[in-house]
Amino acid sequence: MRQLRIFSYLPNPRIWKATIAARLAGVDLEVRGASPKELRSWLWDFDAHPISSGEKVGSGEVPGHAGFKGQLHKTDAFLDAHPFGTVPAAFSPDGSIGIFESNSIMRAVARLGESRFRLYGSDPYESSRIDSFLDASLVFARDSQIYLLALASKAISAEIHSRMRDTFEVYMTGINRTLSPDREFIVGNDITLADICFVAEIGLFHNERPRAGEIEKLGLEPILNSRMDAAYPRAMAHFEKLSHHSAFAPDVLPYLGKIERAIQANR
Description:
Blueprint: E1 4-9, H1 13-25, E2 29-34, H2 36-39, E3 42-44, E4 49-50, E5 60-63, E6 71-74, H3 76-81, E7 89-91, E8 98-100, H4 102-112, H5 124-152, H6 158-178, H7 193-205, H8 212-216, H9 228-231, H10 233-243, H11 249-266
Parallel strand pairs: 1-2, 3-6
Antiparallel strand pairs: 1-7, 3-4, 5-6, 7-8
Helix pairs in contact: 1-4, 1-7, 5-6, 5-7, 6-10
């Protein structure tokens, strides 16, 4: 039996938090989903699926939000398990318990697989330090979502760019500072949830790159620019190294490759 089911729009780098953790900890996941556009015609439920012609879904339509347009079909059971009505949405094997927000879903995977790989630290102090980095990532994640959605809709402004630049600098400075020649990982002596979350959030932020033209129209510079390696050498090297790790590469490398192809197509 699958230990956790996840429903989300795809591809979604924040789902990597769960899939990477699952590979390391030997947890059996099921991921269901489709593109944001396609999810408008899906039934949002534990048994999420495309709605077939003539199917009586027995659910009300609710307005989309956070990148979704139009009406979405969410069952009462889905909204009971996921009261904020968002994806990614994870479920216990029988669908009775909903787990929401990507960091919490990642923590669930770590707990399910803790006997194989202690992704959540070796003691309460390490676990709490990991939580500190995960909490710091939430500020970065919130601002990056606003920023990337504004870029995608061509509604970017100097104010949104400035706020994102400041948030990026704070986040990357902290990650860069915690890494050193004597500290290979963000917390402890091996990969933890802090490392996984960092890679997923920076991987998602690479969506800025194909839209650099929208930023340059404002007379501004993309935040991910050629000076990143010099400004945050340890953080950027950590991202590069983990991107090629066997547990990370199946998610990260195809996604970054697709972004690189999009950049080339825009030139």
